[in-house]
Amino acid sequence: MSSYVRPSLPRQVFRDASEADGRVVRLTPARGDGAPLELTFTAYPGLRVRAGVWGGFVHPVCGCDACDESAEERVEDLEQLVLAVAAGRFQEEYRAFSGTPVRYRVGTVQDGDYRAGASSAEEMSRARLAEGRRRLRALPAGWAPWPPAG
Q1: Which of 42, 94, 127, 132 is the most exposed place for a label (fewest CB within 10 A)?
Q2: Domain that holds residue 45
Q3: Residue 110 placed within a domain
Q4: Is 143 among the domain residues?
């Protein structure tokens, strides 16, 4: 199994409202305990994707012209992320006595790859941290797959 671990990005990547262009798409399963998704279009240009209560991903990871990322690769990467969250392959945890207590991981649909991230408690408000902990305590088995449409 291969893996990709993304280091924690600077706080402003996920918090700076001035980078958002106002378009936000929220996807929440109609029922069940599936992790919600929020896609925010940014001036970067790109997307900021939030999953569950703490997970955060940026697409594309690098916006410079020198990187050799094709639009097709980025779209496929985004699709894999969304499908993995909807399939229940997204996990989050809080470890109180860790240097980075907030951790999340998403397993992709193909090849057994995964992406992971971590944040320190200082990178988010106390209210967001407390709400996330409450929400995750209510999910003893973790985030569930989304129910089928229809």
Answers
A1: 127
A2: 4-137
A3: yes
A4: no
Rounded to whole angstroms, the Cα distance separating 60 from 9 reads 13
pTM of the model: 0.76
Residues in the chain: 150
Measured CA to CA in angstroms, residue 82 lies from 35, 63, 126 at distances of: 10, 21, 27
Q: Which parts of the chain register pLDDT below 50?
A: 1-18
Q: Tally the C-alpha atoms within 13 A of residue 27's C-alpha that lie toward its C-beta.
A: 16
Q: Using CA atoms, how far apart are residues 67 and 102, in angstroms rounded to an integer?
A: 30
| CA angle 35–49–105, rounded 5-degree value | 55
Query: Residue 107: inside a domain, yes or no?
Result: yes
Q: Position 143: which residue type?
A: W
Domain count, the chain: 1
Look at residues 57, 53, 50, 51 and name the one whose alpha carbon lies nearest to residue 89.
51
Specify if 101 maps to a domain: yes
